[in-house]
Specification:
There is one protein chain. The chain folds into two domains: about 5-75 and about 235-300, Rossmann fold (3-Layer(aba) Sandwich), CATH 3.40.50.620; about 80-190, Glutamyl-tRNA Synthetase, Domain 3 (Glutamyl-tRNA Synthetase, domain 3). A hairpin with a 3-residue loop joins β8 and β9 (about 165-170). A three-stranded parallel beta sheet has the order 1-2-3. Strands 4-7-10 form a three-stranded antiparallel beta sheet. A two-stranded antiparallel sheet has the order 5-6. The protein has helices at about 20-35, 55-65, 80-95, 105-115, 145-150, 170-175, 190-200, 215-225, 260-270, 285-300; strands at about 5-10, 40-45, 75, 95-100, 120, 125, 140-145, 155-160, 165-170, 180, 205, 230-235. The chain is α/β, with parallel strands linked by helices and about 300 residues long. This is Glutamyl-Q tRNA(Asp) synthetase.
């Protein structure tokens, strides 16, 4: 079973891991171990201006303190521009990607003219202004032509192992999304799809806030001729204000000096039982707790159902 499972945890080094990101890390590690598979870590620093120098080392240290050690050395996105460019070149050659001259203000105006000024999850639905040419304007970004990429229709159906059946019409709900940004940086959607394929990722376990990204990634996977992984999106950890706990809203790093306490809280967020009573008598309490939670995870998300 192990050879058919490769999972990953992919933090962005914009700050230390907080309790919410530990939940995602623990879930992905447990799923890999429950399958008898491999667990990888990928440092997603493609958005370099937001990244903090040395934070990747801090994050890896936090994971190690919790007994969550990757099976191979971490991959770093900022070192992989060539493979992202190759993927974009493939899409351009197939007529599935095009340059875009629009600024955000241009998109807002154009979307308002089409009667769709509403933002969706902080994003504007791109109306396809540059799909058929730039009208002499300089290119700023590159976009995927979703309609052309979806020969069998842009409505994506997929099944999440926790959330169940999901559907999204990518063409109308998202539009032609960015592959390379106006500042020259690679977009998250392209980088994550290319990296998951290059690393042979078979299962993706991540926070529920990323579930909305999955249909775009499925469209890209199909356009590039890549295999779609199996997805599981975990519950989000909320702050006192009811919003998702995140670095952007000031979430503090979990206490890596008390890793068992942090792991126990993360396990509870995942619906797992507390550690066994005799845990502290163990020579390695963290290892014993993790082993306990692997068994509980296996019962909750039985790999044989897939």
């Amino acid at each position: 079973m192990g050879e058919r499972y490769i999972g990953r945890f992919a933090p962005s080094p914009t700050g230390p891991l907080h309790q919410g990101s530990l939940v995602a890390a623990l879930a992905s590690w447990l799923d890999a171990r429950a399958h008898g598979g491999r667990w990888l870590v990928r440092i997603e620093d493609v958005d370099l201006p937001r990244c903090v120098p040395g934070m990747d080392v801090v994050i890896l240290g936090q994971l190690e303190a919790c007994g969550l050690v990757p099976d191979t050395p971490p991959v770093v996105q900022s070192q992989r521009s060539a493979i992202y460019q190759a993927a974009l070149d493939q899409l351009v050659a197939a007529g599935l990607a095009y340059p875009c001259a629009c600024s955000r203000k241009d998109i807002e105006i154009a979307a308002a003219r089409t009667g769709r000024p509403r933002e969706r999850n902080g994003e504007l639905v791109y109306p396809g202004t540059c799909r058929h040419g730039l009208n002499g304007l300089p290119a700023r970004a590159w976009r995927l032509d979703v309609a052309s990429a979806c020969a069998d229709g842009a409505v994506v159906h997929w099944v999440d192992r926790r959330l169940g059946a999901q559907t999204q019409d990518v063409a109308t709900e998202v539009g032609d999304f960015v592959l390379r940004r106006a500042d020259g940086l690679w977009a998250y959607q392209l980088a994550v799809v290319v990296d998951d394929a290059a690393q042979g990722i078979t299962h993706v376990v991540r926070g529920a806030d990323l579930a909305d990204n999955t249909p775009r990634q499925v469209v890209l996977q199909r356009a590039l001729g890549l295999v779609t992984p199996i997805y599981l999106h975990t519950p989000l950890v909320l702050g006192d204000n009811g919003e998702k706990l995140s670095k952007q809203n000031g979430a503090r790093a979990f206490d890596s000096a008390a890793p068992l306490d942090a792991l126990t809280a993360a396990a509870a967020q995942l619906g797992l039982p507390g550690p066994p009573p005799a845990l502290h008598a163990s020579d390695d309490p963290i290892r014993a707790a993790l082993s306990h939670w692997v068994t509980a995870w296996r019962a909750l998300y039985n790999p044989t159902r897939e």
